[in-house]
Amino acid sequence: MQRRNTPQKREIFEAVQTLRTHPTAEELYTHLKEQGSSIGKATVYRVLHQMAEEGQIRVVRLPEGADHFDFQLKPHYHIICTRCQKVADVFLSEAFAGNDAVSCASDYQVDGYHLVYYGICPNCQQAAEISSGAEINPSNFESKGE
Ligand SMILES: [Zn+2]
Ligand SMILES: [Zn+2]
Predict the structure, then answer these.
(1) List of long-range contacts for 70-75, beta carbons under 8 Å, 24+ apart
(2) Distance 120 CA to ligand 1 centre (A)
(3) Does residue 61 sit in the same domain as residue 78?
(4) Domain extent at residue 87
(5) CATH for 18
(6) Which of 58, 65, 105, 146 has the most C-beta neighbours closer than 10 Å?
(7) Total domain count for the chain?
(8) How far is the CA of 91 from the centre of ligand 2 (A)?
(9) How far is C-alpha 92 from the chain's CA centre?
(10) Ranges assigned E (strand) in the chain
(11) How much distance in Å is there from the Cα of 34 to the middle of ligand 1?
């Protein structure tokens, strides 16, 4: 059985490829709208989940917030910036806790894993460096006395 690749589906798929930022359905919808697309929000949601089911894209489920969508199908981990919520890819040559190892340790039959790292992205590190000069308040170091 062959599924028809509708023009809408192609449009949404291309948007996921173009954005490359692990967009949420909402972000993709906004992007498409800015591009002059007439695709409705419900269609964007439906098609994204359909493509994820078919394995064309990946759903990145985070502990908080909406699902993100990923064009990158190669196995990889994600790291989230705790300041701006930017999601980046982390490619490691070997899974640090392989399914087999976890299976041995837990007696579960492991079907997969979801691992998310947290950190501060380069942009936010830079922003912190720039503002750190201003944040140092000498009065914090003075004894106010009583
Ligand atoms: Zn950041
Ligand atoms: Zn990713």
Answers:
(1) 70/16, 70/22, 71/16, 71/17, 71/20
(2) 5
(3) no
(4) 74-130
(5) 1.10.10.10
(6) 58
(7) 2
(8) 9
(9) 17
(10) 58-60, 68-70, 77-81, 87-90, 116-119
(11) 24
Per-residue HEC secondary structure of 49-77 comes to HHHHHCCCCEEECCCCCCCEEECCCCCCE
CA of 139 to the centre of ligand 1 (A): 29
pLDDT by residue, tens only, the chain of 146 residues: 445 668 889 999 999 999 888 999 999 999 999 999 999 999 999 999 999 999 999 999 887 788 999 999 888 889 999 999 899 998 876 656 677 777 888 888 887 777 789 999 999 999 988 777 655 555 545 544 44
Q: How far is the CA of 21 from the centre of ligand 2 (A)?
A: 8
CA–centroid distance, residue 143 to ligand 1 (Å): 35
Distance 127 CA to ligand 2 centre (A): 24
Are 10 and 65 within one domain?
A: yes
Q: State the distance from the centre of ligand 2 to the C-alpha of 34, rounded, in angstroms.
A: 24
- Of 61, 48, 64, 49, nearest to 114 by C-alpha is 61
pTM of the predicted structure, to 2 decimals: 0.72
Distance 43 CA to ligand 1 centre (A): 30
Among the listed residues 1, 16, 75, the one whose alpha carbon sits nearest the alpha carbon of residue 51:
16
Please report, as a single letter, which amino acid is at residue 47.
V
